[in-house]
């Protein structure tokens, strides 16, 4: 009718007896997303957390470690929540156990000098 506005066309309503679709197939996509999130995000993160916890519990005096901040040092003293690191001769810092990022091979500090 109008030159600028086109006429709206309505679709016919579905018949009353028409099937809406299988509910199992409607749930298949969300279930698939949950499975993908589990295998690509949740599972690897929990695995890394378990490995880090085991590494921090297995620390011993004399181990050479790198903190998450990048400080290389040798463990001098271990307490329940804190570790004392010797980062240079007679320079000792205290860091939390959880801040230990990696365990280094023996002799790493001597190689850097």
Would you kindly provide a written description of the structure presented here, covering whatever features stand out?
With 113 residues, this protein is α+β, with helices and mostly antiparallel strands. The chain has two domains: 23-57; 60-113, Roll (SH3 type barrels). It is 35% helix and 26% strand. It has helices at 23-57, 108-112; strands at residues 64-67, 72-78, 82-88, 91-96, 100-104. The protein has a five-stranded antiparallel β-sheet with strand order 4-3-2-1-5. β2 (72-78) and β3 form a beta hairpin. It starts with 22 loop residues before the first helix and ends with a helix. 4% of the residues are buried. The model has no long low-confidence stretch (mean pLDDT 87).
């Amino acid at each position: 009718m109008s030159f600028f506005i086109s006429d709206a066309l309505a679709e016919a309503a579905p018949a009353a007896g028409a099937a809406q679709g299988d509910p199992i197939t409607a749930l298949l996509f969300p279930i698939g997303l949950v499975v993908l999130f589990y295998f690509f995000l949740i599972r690897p993160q929990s695995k890394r957390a378990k490995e880090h916890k085991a590494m921090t519990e297995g620390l011993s005096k004399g181990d050479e470690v790198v903190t998450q901040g990048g400080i290389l040092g040798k463990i001098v003293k271990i307490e329940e929540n804190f570790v004392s690191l010797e980062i240079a001769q007679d320079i000792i810092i205290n860091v939390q156990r959880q801040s230990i990022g990696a365990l280094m091979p023996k002799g790493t500090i001597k190689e850097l000098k």
